[in-house]
From TrEMBL:
Coiled-coil positions: none
An example Gene Ontology molecular-function term: serine O-acetyltransferase activity
Catalytic activity annotation: L-serine + acetyl-CoA = O-acetyl-L-serine + CoA
Residue spans of biased composition, Basic and acidic residues class: 300-314
Record region (Disordered): 291-314
EC number(s) from the headed UniProt entry: 2.3.1.30
Broad EC category: transferase
InterPro entries assigned: Hexapep, LbH_SAT, Ser_AcTrfase_N_sf, Serine_acetyltransferase, Trimer_LpxA-like_sf
Pfam families listed in its UniProt record: Hexapep (PF00132)
Family recorded in the similarity comment: Belongs to the transferase hexapeptide repeat family.
Organism of derivation: Trinickia fusca
Swiss-Prot/TrEMBL GO biological process terms: amino acid biosynthetic process
Keywords: Acyltransferase, Amino-acid biosynthesis, Transferase
Protein name per Swiss-Prot or TrEMBL: serine O-acetyltransferase
Length: 314
């Protein structure tokens, strides 16, 4: 059969069944029928543009000079922020508070948010430089800063996260989540944009790292691959709907090191300077300066349980 017709494909029946699934049986459309969605392609271009503006000699044009670099940064920011403003406008429409916002007002709000993000870029760059320096200091295999900027997945993930977290704080959670999921796809590192992460943060290797929405991480913290900072349980309402927004992920204080495969669950605190060994499973807090390994985690857990029992007895 050289050129089958639509009738031979059975397209009329397929289209009808897809319409029924889409409109009646298995609806996935937003309840308000929003059709104008943020664009993944545009967001990838925006993140690349912002990275190029912050680190032009590594991610920008290859022939930049000291005379042309400022012009390049300015023109790149101009075009990138225009693209970002449109994506922010589209994302804002998904917030309940903007369900009925007039289009002109929504556009103005998107401009204000985009301008605020632009103003934060020098501070975001500064904290990213601290992350890059932490990677160089923490990895004996690192030869120079350029290698880290071009090759390290943890740094790529943090570039996305620092931008996404700023947008999350500015009230655009959908766009923020979009940015971090693009990094997740590229690196295997899954960081929720709501997570609060201090400066000089280093993820070595990176694949399989998960950091939850309400996690709080201090300064100079180092994680290795396959570390999970997750939730222990998910409270639900009487009707079974999960309660949103509760603090349910760990707090990791300054100068903590967490080795490969460790899993830390719940709103527990890992004290300053603690070292959590590989493949440890933790669901309780540990004091500052602790060293937890598979061999002693049971003893630590028993001691924590005894302290909890003593508190309850009082």
């Amino acid at each position: 059969m050289s050129n089958p017709s639509s009738r031979q494909w059975g397209l009329e029946q397929i289209v009808a069944e897809l319409r029924a699934s889409r409109e009646e049986l298995h609806r996935t459309r937003h309840p308000r029928g929003i059709r104008e969605l943020p664009s993944r392609e545009a967001i990838v271009g925006i993140v690349n543009g912002l990275r190029a503006a912050m680190f032009p000699t590594h991610y920008g044009a290859p022939d930049l000079t000291s005379e042309s670099v400022d012009y390049y940064v300015g023109t790149t920011l101009e075009s990138t922020l225009r693209l970002l403003c449109e994506q922010v406008r589209r994302a804002l429409r998904f917030l309940p508070e903007h369900a009925e916002t007039p289009e002109a007002e929504l556009t103005e709000r998107a401009f204000e948010i985009t301008r605020a993000l632009g103003a934060q870029l020098p501070a975001i760059r500064a904290i990213l430089v601290s992350d890059i320096q932490a990677a160089f200091a923490g990895d004996p295999a690192a030869q120079h800063i350029t290698e880290i900027l071009l090759c390290y997945p943890g740094v790529l993930a943090m570039m996305h996260h620092r931008l996404a977290h700023a947008l999350h704080q500015l009230g655009v959670p959908l766009l923020a989540r979009f940015i971090n999921e693009i990094a997740h796809s590229a690196t295997g590192i899954d960081i929720h944009p709501g997570a609060q992460i201090g400066p000089s943060f280093f993820i070595d290797h990176g694949t399989g790292v998960v950091i939850g929405e309400t996690a709080i991480i201090g300064e100079r913290v180092r994680l290795y691959q396959a570390v999970t900072l997750g939730a222990k349980s998910f409270p639900a309402d009487d009707d079974g709907t999960l309660v949103k927004g509760r603090a349910r992920h760990p707090i990791v204080e300054d100068d903590v090191v967490i080795y490969a495969g460790a899993t830390i669950l719940g709103r527990v605190t890992i004290g300053r300077g603690a070292v959590i060994g590989g493949n440890v499973w933790l669901t309780h807090s540990v004091p500052p300066g602790s060293s937890i390994s598979q061999g002693n985690v049971r003893a630590e857990t028993t001691h924590a349980d005894e302290l909890d029992a003593a508190k309850r007895a009082r």
